Amino acid sequence: MKHAVNEHPAEGPSTDGGRASDDSSPVIQVLEKIREEVAGLSGGRVADYIPELAHADPGLFGVAAVSAHGRSYCVGDTEHTFTLQSISKPFVYAIAVEQLGLDAVHGHVGAEPSGEPFNAISLDERGRPENPMINAGAIVTTSLVESALPAKRFDRIRSVLSEFAGRELEVDEDVYRSETETGHRNRALGYLSLAGGVLVGSVEDAVQDYFRQCALSVTVRDLAVMAATLAVGGVNPVTGEQVVSQRTARHTLSIMSSCGMYDRAGEWGLRVGIPAKSGVSGGILAAAPGAFGVGVFSPPLDDAGNSVRGVAALERLSDDYDLHMLQMPAEPPSPMHSVTRDGTRLEVRLRGEIDFLAAEQVVSRLAEAIDDSRVKSVSVALERVSGLSDAARGLLAAELTELADAGVAATVSDPRGVREP
Q1: Are 286 and 96 in contact (CB under 8 A)?
Q2: What percentage of the chain reaches a pLDDT higher than 70?
Q3: What global pTM score does this model have?
Q4: How many helices and strands, by DSSP H and E, does the chain display?
């Protein structure tokens, strides 16, 4: 049994693999408890429509998590390699969106859940595949990726997916050949998309690059790092590299949340509520925004093509540890470290990340100064603020203008260099 915790120091990312195994970590204990709870599940069957996948050991089971700060926690069969298969789809979608923009990509592929199996013929009224997470849509998305030379498109895909994983990924040539020899349905989906005017270039070129991206070999820890990179806004928390923009990461998580688990997407959203993507080799990648990336690997699949143990493990993790993206706090955390009144002067000290919701609380508190004729000046201190969103800055700036118009002197102090409103 493999247990490992890799920690990366606060002063910067580490690429040396972190420190040695630490079975006492509470996070390791959580993951091992969940793994033990679901390891005995015996349902499902190993995928065999790609012949090379049929050789997988059904007893393999690994779980890994990587935090927003780059710490990794691994239990079970975490060094076993397997192929990405459909887990490659959201990352290639992210490449296309980063290069072309959201509207251009979705001129070729839809954004609606298909409610059908991953390899279904599923086209909307405009002739586009329903979304980029089913095979037809993924082949189209692959065809959209730009490179200096069309023949080098896969090199671009492999390079960016390697940046997501934080290490160089290689193609499993045996799986690639197996997919090439048996992937006739995917070729048919490509030709349907070409006939609909949404696939760019040669069908065979797009399909071959799609087969290669699906055959990239990873470990369950790689999945967790890739998921964490999306979860923290496109920055790999292990290497510190900005792989895609925060906006592209958000778009990708949105598609994953509605379409990533195929015709089980609604059930997944209800019971797990973490943006995720599965693959028929037995992997599932899940990205809890702002918190963790999680990777699970166990080859036996349910009828929808999702890992039986992987689904069960992520359902328990979400339910027991409040990772559902719609989990609400009992009350919103206060962004105000302190509010003090000294005669005619009101001082508000802020803390933490100030987003639109936090700014609304601050603005409501400052607005009270307009209604209180005794208040002549207001000061807002940002020394404990770690981040200020554009939306929050605009809202605070508008309120400071309102105060000035009401005859209340308003100032902002920013000793840490956080952008002032």
Answers
A1: no
A2: 89
A3: 0.82
A4: 14, 13
